[in-house]
């Protein structure tokens, strides 16, 4: 038996049971015949994570996944809703996002019991919901898992490209302000990001990313503090702003909030690598604690940012900060550093797919060389795309609009419906009705977000859009 067979893959939260010495079973996720044991299978007892995350560490990861550049777009979102609808809408959107994440985690935990697997990733959970769902849909399990798998990879690779452009743009804007004689192109700044990004993405365990996420959370608080300082200077009366915007603009607000809050790809890896996964759900729980903080910050930033800058607010509120003050410029650099420290956490999502493919190898020879090679190659591709398309935000915002509204809202509601179809849809089918409402909301966000992105792309190509940086980063 090779060393790889003796030790579970630390990166793979969805490792095959046959490679896990702590649990001997011939039952795979594709099996539909469930063996009834006297004692119900407890997946938490069979998880063998070499470097588990603490409860606090898991909260930190979720906060970092949800608190990024998206929060800086909240004042712009409020511009499309008005103050009253903005506050109510932020709360409702936050509750919906929290609920859909809880649906995925709860469904995954229940499917782990049925399939007798210690843990499942997001794509595995989606596939298993069909595999163990209604008989007519069981053969779709493998197909659904594959589609979700590659959708997740495409989504987060795209986000990484946007992150690269964001980091490069922030440094260029700050340095050009201080040293205008340099006038280095954005492409050069993207290339300069290559080595630092390659280095941070060599970290393979979520546990070791906790200090980076914690540091990023501290720095983003500093950025928020500086931004709030400028927001509260000579703050106008809220009565000067629109209370309720046109109904036709509400979908734009909804899509922005959903894109900013969603961290669906990070949720399952975080839950799967917790030392005490039973504390993820429930009250207070890891999820609820993190989302209460997220929703509160989004509401505060959106409200006061819009009150201060009104209709002049830009896609990222840091762009409204003074260009001639070093504190404001420093805040932009700190935000770039925050995105850099968050890069590896987002990179963990596509690497989960890669690690599952690597887990099928019969030998663990050159494991480290292969890991370093793959991680470096992916970052080179990301940077190369960023160099080729330095205004990639326009394309990525379209990809984000399609995938985050779909993966974050539509798919969780769908798999919960499929899984519970023959089990329990609640009294008067309230579970079905509730899930259908969520799916309708996701489709509205999908269409509106895609429409805005396409319009911006057309305007950009026609030369009508001068400032590309007003595009909201998902």
UniProtKB/TrEMBL annotation:
Keywords: Membrane, Transmembrane, Transmembrane helix. Residues 53-454 form the Amino acid transporter transmembrane domain. It comes from the Eukaryota. The chain crosses the membrane at residues 83-105, 153-172, 184-201, 208-232, 252-270, 282-306, 326-349, 369-389, 395-419, 431-454. It is found in: Membrane. It is a multi-pass membrane protein. One of its GO terms (cellular component) is vacuolar membrane. One of its GO terms (molecular function) is L-amino acid transmembrane transporter activity. Its main location: membrane. This is Proton-coupled amino acid transporter-like protein pathetic. The lineage of its organism: Eukaryota, Metazoa, Ecdysozoa, Arthropoda, Hexapoda.
